[in-house]
């Protein structure tokens, strides 16, 4: 007989859930919660995208509406502080500052798009071609020549190239865009070369080579899609640099010329009034900073999204 109060090992056994459907639902719910917790909102990308959308919205709205004509001069309203009629005040010629900020966003985005487009369309193929030659025993010296030429171009900043273009041609938005774009080519070439070398070492590329697939086909089908994330991140960072370069060139008189509104020219024209009317330099400076910050944060967020190592580190 079993003593009173004694319990058998069976009594200590954990209860068994006889409902397999409930167990499965519980497991699925746990995995769903883990997936949701792994999808963290990237604050850098959200803030950067918001700032970029703000700048783009200003430029787009200026095509259909502005508070005043950008070139309308009103001497009676010169150097006014912010008011309902002129929220950002007026400049030395009585022009509305908010209107100039809105129209100046067009030039900023135009220079960024063209400059980044030049650098991307030239620098990315150069980097891919250089990496393809680096993987061939007979092409190592070609890769070295390409990258040394890239280093020489890297030694020429956008300002120096803009001065050269201004000496050959007249200063303006076009030469400034070309100068900034050429100065950004080495960055795209280095990023594309590094990414291509990583892709060429993968198993699927080796399989494609073993099946006698041609090098151009490998570059288009396998390399480009896999380095697209790196190139997009570089484009976002280069866009921020282009915004700052355009403002600097316009400030020095080598970029956008009068009477076209430009944030850099607004800063240049406000120099002599910094002590009496600092708001003339405040508003273009704020929007230059917002544009640069927005594209930099967007680039950081995209890098975290496209780079598995960075994503795993933040998890």
UniProtKB/TrEMBL annotation:
Which residues, if any, are the signal sequence?
A: none
Q: Which Pfam families match?
A: BPD_transp_1 (PF00528)
Protein localization: Cell membrane
Keyword line? Cell membrane, Membrane, Transmembrane, Transmembrane helix, Transport
Q: Which Gene3D superfamilies does UniProt cross-reference here? A: MetI-like
Ranges for domain ABC transmembrane type-1 come to 105-299
Superkingdom, taxonomy of origin: Bacteria
- Where would you find the membrane-spanning parts of this chain? 43-65, 107-132, 152-170, 176-196, 217-245, 280-299
A GO biological process this protein is involved in?
transmembrane transport
InterPro entries, per the entry: BP-dependent_transpt_permease, MetI-like, MetI-like_sf
The annotated region (Disordered) lies at 1-36
A GO CC term assigned to this protein in UniProt: plasma membrane
PROSITE patterns reported in the protein's UniProt record:
ABC_TM1 (PS50928)
Q: Quick check: keyword Transmembrane helix in the entry?
A: yes
Q: Where is the composition biased (Low complexity)?
A: 21-32
Question: What membrane topology is annotated for this entry?
Answer: Multi-pass membrane protein
Q: Does the keyword Transmembrane apply?
A: yes
Against SUPFAM superfamilies, the record matches this protein to: MetI-like
PANTHER family hit by this protein: OLIGOPEPTIDE TRANSPORT SYSTEM PERMEASE PROTEIN APPC, PEPTIDE ABC TRANSPORTER PERMEASE PROTEIN
State the similarity comment: Belongs to the binding-protein-dependent transport system permease family.
Q: What is this protein called?
A: Peptide/nickel transport system permease protein
The species this protein was found in: Brevibacterium linens
């Amino acid at each position: 007989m079993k003593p009173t109060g004694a319990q058998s090992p069976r009594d200590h056994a954990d209860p068994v859930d006889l409902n397999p459907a409930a167990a499965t639902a519980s497991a699925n719910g746990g995995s769903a919660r883990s997936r949701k917790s792994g999808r963290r909102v990237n604050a850098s990308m959200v803030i950067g995208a918001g700032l970029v959308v703000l700048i783009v919205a200003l430029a787009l709205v200026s095509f259909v509406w502005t508070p005043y004509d950008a070139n309308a001069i009103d001497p009676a309203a010169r150097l006014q502080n912010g008011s309902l009629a002129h929220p950002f005040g007026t400049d030395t010629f009585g022009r509305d500052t908010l209107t100039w900020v809105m129209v100046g966003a067009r030039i900023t985005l135009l220079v960024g798009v063209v400059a980044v487009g030049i650098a991307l369309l030239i620098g990315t193929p150069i980097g891919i071609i250089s990496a393809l030659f680096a993987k061939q025993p007979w092409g190592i010296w070609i890769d070295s020549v390409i990258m040394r030429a890239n280093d020489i171009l890297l030694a020429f900043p956008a300002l120096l190239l803009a001065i050269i273009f201004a000496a050959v041609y007249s200063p303006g938005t076009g030469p400034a865009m070309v100068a900034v774009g050429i100065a950004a080519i080495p960055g795209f070439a280095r990023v594309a070369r590094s990414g291509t070398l990583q892709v060429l070492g993968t198993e699927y590329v080796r399989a494609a080579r073993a099946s006698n697939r041609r090098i151009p086909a490998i570059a288009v089908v396998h390399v480009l899609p896999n380095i697209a994330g790196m190139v997009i991140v570089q484009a976002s960072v280069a866009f921020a640099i282009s915004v700052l370069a355009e403002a600097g060139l316009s400030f020095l008189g080598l970029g956008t010329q009068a009477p076209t509104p430009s944030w850099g020219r607004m800063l240049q024209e406000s120099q002599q009034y910094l002590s009496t009317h600092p708001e003339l330099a405040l508003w273009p400076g704020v929007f230059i900073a917002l544009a640069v910050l927005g594209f930099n944060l967007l680039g950081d967020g995209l890098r975290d999204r496209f780079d598995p190592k960075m994503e795993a580190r933040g998890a």
